[in-house]
């Protein structure tokens, strides 16, 4: 992943993604060199308002997201965990689809989903990971090993993926899935306030940096159709 943002403009229209990002973020202004200018950008000021209104306001957050993910967990019959936090411009959560525990090793299969606060966009992906826990030491810690990403409804993820996708589009009208291959593309000169990275991806700007995994994302096996969701962006 990590290709520069581009698309076949004769067949698809992904300009809404770019325009949403341009509305809220500067492109080409390095925040570490020109922080005053960066912070004064009208889009950054508007972004702060959006976060305050939708995440900082507890009642709004509970109405828009907490009740929604609780309903998803109950209807699907899986444990749900909210992951919305800080300056990240999206609501997010994940379902634990499967959990195998053996000693200090836990194998998880999760389904992550996010809904952007900056436009009518959402993302869904499966995650298979192993977590090693060391609780018997003076300073307990964990080691997480990411094994695979699932980027479209296939195999054991299919029913859950499709169910969450249906529930999101039912709750958030006219929202569209950002295809994995598009979401992971980068815009040169795009810097996100809370990330220490010069060229950020579409997903980082609209959702979060969970699919960054530091530099590990290129080492994780990816299953599914990287272009899943493209049809909803056709002209």
Could you list some keywords that capture this structure?
235 residues; alpha/beta; 7-stranded mixed beta sheet; 7 helices
Quick structural gist:
Helix content is 31%, strand content 25%. It has 7 helices and 7 strands. α3 packs across α4.
SSE layout:
Blueprint lengths: L14 H10 L10 H6 L1 H15 L1 H19 L2 E4 L7 E13 L2 E12 L4 E14 L6 E10 L7 H14 L4 E2 L2 H4 L18 H5 L14 E3 L12
Helix pairs in contact: 3-4
Question: What does the model show?
Answer:
- The chain has 235 residues and is α/β, with parallel strands linked by helices.
- The chain contains 7 helices and 7 strands, in the order ααααβββββαβααβ.
- Strands 1, 2, 3, 4, 5, 6 and 7 form a 7-stranded mixed β-sheet that branches.
- It is globular and about 50 Å long.
- The mean pLDDT is 91.
């Amino acid at each position: 992943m990590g290709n520069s943002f581009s698309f076949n403009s004769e067949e698809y229209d992904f300009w809404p993604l770019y325009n949403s990002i341009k509305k809220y973020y500067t492109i080409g202004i390095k925040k570490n060199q020109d922080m005053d200018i960066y912070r004064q950008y009208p889009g950054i000021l508007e972004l702060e308002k959006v976060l305050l209104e939708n995440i900082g306001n507890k009642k709004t957050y509970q109405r828009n997201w907490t009740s929604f993910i609780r309903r998803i967990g109950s209807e699907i019959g899986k444990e749900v965990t909210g992951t919305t936090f800080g300056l990240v411009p999206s609501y997010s959560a994940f379902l634990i689809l499967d959990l195998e525990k053996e000693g200090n090793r836990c194998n998880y299969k999760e389904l992550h989903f996010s809904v952007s606060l900056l436009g009518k966009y959402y993302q869904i992906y499966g995650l298979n990971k192993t977590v090693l826990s060391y609780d018997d030491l003076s300073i307990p810690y964990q080691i997480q090993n990411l094994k695979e990403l699932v980027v479209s409804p296939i195999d054991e993820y299919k029913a859950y993926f499709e169910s969450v996708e249906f529930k999101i589009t039912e709750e958030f009208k006219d929202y569209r899935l950002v295809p994995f291959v598009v979401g992971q593309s980068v815009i040169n000169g795009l810097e996100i306030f809370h990330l220490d990275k010069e060229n950020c991806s579409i997903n980082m700007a609209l959702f979060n940096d969970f699919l960054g995994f530091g530099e590990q994302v290129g080492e994780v096996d990816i299953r599914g159709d990287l272009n899943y969701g493209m049809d909803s962006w056709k002209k």
